[in-house]
Amino acid sequence: MPELPEVETYRRVADGALGRTIVDVDSPDAWFLKGGTTAEDLSATLVGSQFCGTRRIGKLLLLDVAPLAGAAVSPVVGIRFGMTGTLLVDGIDGVGPLLYGPSRRDPSWERWRVALDGGGTLVVHDPRRLGGVTLDPETSDLGPDALDIGVAALAGALCGSSAPLKARLLDQSKVAGIGNLIADETLWRASLSPLRSSVALTSTEVRRLHRHLRATLTDLMARGGSHRGDLIDERHPGGICPKDGSPLARATVGGRTTWWCPTHQA
Fold it and tell me: Which residues, other chains included, contact 144 with Cβ-Cβ below 8 Å and sequence gap of 6+?
């Protein structure tokens, strides 16, 4: 599933579309357009212009658009990828098949297509239609990016709630970019139970969590995605902890299936 590492890869792939004139925009799936955005809005804003920059906040990809002549502001296209969304530029996505997505591609799953001069394309492909495209998306509801958050900001995100630690980490308004797989991998590496009350962490434990969050994200980006963690192959009934060989426990935390080692995660 696209979590921070995958979306960061899509951001780098999207760099390949920068500076190329947009000649057509095809938005065949009105359901996929969010926040009141329409196909007509996207075509009117983008055709004849160019993407001039790429950014990412958590799992939200932002494409800056060069303003057309006479326009006062620079538009922004926001893309969310849900569980099975991918972004391709000139047929390249940089990630490959997703853990919970089909291995094949079907033209009917293309939810948004931008035609670029010279015959190239930027395409959002999403079998389950859980992502979306928005013009000038709201970003104030997102917390600090998980890759950039500091120790003090992480402590602030965790305090004030007795919610389970994993549920707090999955809350995009507190920390942006952490999904189910990264949360399990990070907490496993940090030796912290996903069931712990987030407000109960000591300052030492917060620092340890911060260190492992940064290291886990950096490691998984280098490995090629959120599904490349050390715990991933054991997240199933009968799975054992790769650290100590103990049977893994399973529960639902924050609405997501969660695996952890009750022996070393306290």
Answer: 150, 153, 157, 175, 176
* Domain covering 151-260 in this structure, CATH number: 1.10.8.50
Domain extent listing, the chain: 4-135, 151-260
Residue with tokens 């991918």: 86
Residues annotated as catalytic (active site), given as ranges: 2-3, 59, 256
Local confidence pLDDT in tens for the 266 residues of the chain:
789 999 999 999 999 999 999 999 999 999 999 999 999 999 999 999 999 999 999 999 999 999 876 767 789 999 999 989 999 999 988 787 666 666 677 888 999 999 999 999 999 999 999 999 999 999 999 999 999 999 999 999 999 889 999 999 999 999 999 999 999 999 999 999 999 999 999 999 999 999 999 999 999 999 989 999 999 999 999 999 999 999 999 999 999 999 999 999 99
**Amino acid identity for residue 97 in this structure:** P
Q: CATH class for domain 4-135?
A: alpha beta
